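Pasting as-is:
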Amino acid sequence: MFTAADYRFMDAALALAQAQLGRTAPNPAVGCIIVRDGTIVGWGATADGGRPHAEREALDRAGELARSGRAYVTLEPCAFHGQTPPCADALIAAGIETVLIACLDEHPKVAGRGIALLRDAGIGVETGLRASEAARLYAGFFHRLRTGRPLVYLDPNPARYDAILTPKAINAPIDELDRLGQAGINRVCVKPGSALAACLIEAGLVHAPATAAHTTR
């Protein structure tokens, strides 16, 4: 059972991730908080451009204080060597005692493997803390993994989106979304009430017909 403190620390991790929306593509925006003896000793979010990852940032800030600590991560730690080593390995090497994860990753190279690495190393893993909030945060990333296209939101405010769909996309909206997906774009916005918005709604390509909030709550 999660405590009030657990919710508070995961909320802090979610806030860190949310603040980086629109800045981390092709990677999702992840937040990480490291706590020892009830005090935050490390924090981090996915950096601009997708690297360093949130866990690496938080561990670097915590240093030796991470040992025997608890890590609150908004998305399952990565489990494969890309341009950086796996975050699951970094948490293990730092001596983290427990990892609390809001949302499991759907990336085929992660998808449960991050959790397995942690548990095999003797680290306690708890999942599902603020799961619905994290699922909304990563809806665009998961949509791109499943469909190859970014998720489209109607929103007059382009902040915190990876890209903006311009009116020229009305000529071939699916081709444009495919192009953006191939470029690693997870979330795009289009101006509500525009001809392009009407076209996308009619084609069933819009995530929400009303202005889409990009908050996690």
